[in-house]
Amino acid sequence: MKILTVDVGTGTQDVLLYDSRLDLENGFKLVLPSPTMMIHHRIREATRRGEALLLTGKTMGGGPSAWAARDHARAGLPIFATPAAAKTIDDELEKVEKMGIRVLSEEEAQRLPASVQRLELKDFDFALLSETFARFGISLKDVSLVCVAVFDHGDSPPGVSDRQFRFDYLDERIREENSLTAFAYLAGDIPPIMTRLQAVADSAQDIDAPILVMDTAPAAVLGASFDPQVATRRDKLVANIGNFHCLAFRLSERGIAGVFEHHTGEINSEKLESLLLRLADGTLTHQDVFDDMGHGALVYDNTPLKLGEQGWDVAVTGPRRTLFQSPTHLRPYFAVPFGDMMLAGNIGLLAAAADLLPDLAGPVRQALSGATQGTAPWDMEA
To answer: Which structural domains are found in the chain, ordered by start?
Structure first.
């Protein structure tokens, strides 16, 4: 059994092909530029050449791609976008138009001259990954499941803060199902408000396998929990410090005891330490984070979590974990599930798959337990 897992971030997309015949450490891995970075570079090149652009395809992760599109318009160059692609830049299409990016219907876009360069937006490109693996003799034609993680603010109504909207969604999911896998869905179960998750599922419609999608930060925190040091703690802080978002969970035997989410660019080591200490002692409030331009905080158990009694205080993963290089009163532990920090999200996707798909759960849980599968890569067919 093969399961393709793809964790799509702002800087990279991290790929793990799980094969039930192999130990997880022998699974085939790729760390590639993220889709938004790939589009960013292609728009920048079009700007340099002075070309007109049309953005088509799905709603995908913004950031670098959105900034490049805005700068293309600021350079006085024509740029168009279909409605779904335009929502990559902003959910409110009037704001996209005000940037100088003209939003066209699909029919209008088709009538643009061939001289306008087309760029298709999507977070998940199965054909490209299949081609990449095929160059190394590995087939993806027989995958049993495809799992993709992306960050989704949700489609907030006009005038509603997307930060508040996302945190209301987090609160609802935790209250309904108090576990990190509450943020994972099979393709047919995605809430309508989670438009980026739905766009990923739509991009994978041609795949002859079930599709599972999940929010990136809970996936990374869940994956980090499989580090042997982290797994032994019943009550713990786990922080995922991404390029754009910093999200920390306080976890207990009963599930999620608290969470905060902030923009990584708005915090430094001192602020991060303060947020984590207040999350641990139960005093962190939603307004503390929201009023500081973060997303917010939720505390479900304000019983203080005792720190300083064991070898580390907070387990850390994510590409911006260097925030802990500065002196801090908190002792970080840099989680490396199955020996690879970059694949924490992929491990979390596998764990979520085991929870949502009982038919696949046996071998996946066996692999996540660290049990040896027994087959060497050279003894199996691709």
So the answer is: 2-33+125-220+341-368 (3.30.420), 35-121 (3.40.50), 228-335 (3.30.420.40)
